[in-house]
Write a structure and sequence with these properties.
The relative contact order is 0.23. This protein is globular. It is built from two helices and six strands, in the order H-E-E-E-E-E-E-H. The chain has helices at about 5-15, 90-95, and strands spanning about 20-25, 30, 35-40, 45-50, 60-70, 75-80. Helices cover about 15% and strands about 35% of the residues. A hairpin with a 4-residue loop joins strand 1 and strand 2 (about 30). Strands 3-2-1-6-5-4 form a six-stranded mixed sheet, covered by helices on one side. It has one domain (about 5-95). By secondary structure, the protein is an alpha+beta fold. The model has no long low-confidence stretch (mean pLDDT about 85).
Length: about 100
């Protein structure tokens, strides 16, 4: 696994390795505005997770996910805040976001 010091560094590094789509959390799915695709929790795997904790400001806390569709056709990045700043997500999506490949 790679190591990154900042969120921007992680996103850029993942993009260089083929994770080119931008995913957004949409409660019970991941949406991609670039191509209109929505992935349900059963449609994707999380390949890598990078967590960044704000040293001085809790609003700087973020998690970057490297995501791949199960058919291997889509690879992208989801960047989300965690803790009190996190977006609302379904129980199924929260469970999925805590699991990733080793």
């Amino acid at each position: 696994m790679f190591s990154y010091d900042t969120v921007v560094e992680a996103i850029n590094g993942l993009r260089e390795r083929g994770y080119t789509m931008d995913f957004n959390l949409a409660f019970d799915a991941l949406s991609c505005q670039q191509n209109g695709v929505c992935l349900n929790p059963t449609d994707f795997e999380i390949d890598e997770v990078y967590r960044f904790e704000g040293d001085t400001n809790p609003s700087d806390e973020d998690v970057v996910y490297a995501i791949e569709s199960k058919d291997g056709k889509l690879k992208g990045v989801l960047s989300e805040a965690f803790g009190v700043y996190a977006d609302a997500a379904s129980a199924e999506m929260l469970k999925k976001l805590t699991m990733h490949k080793s």
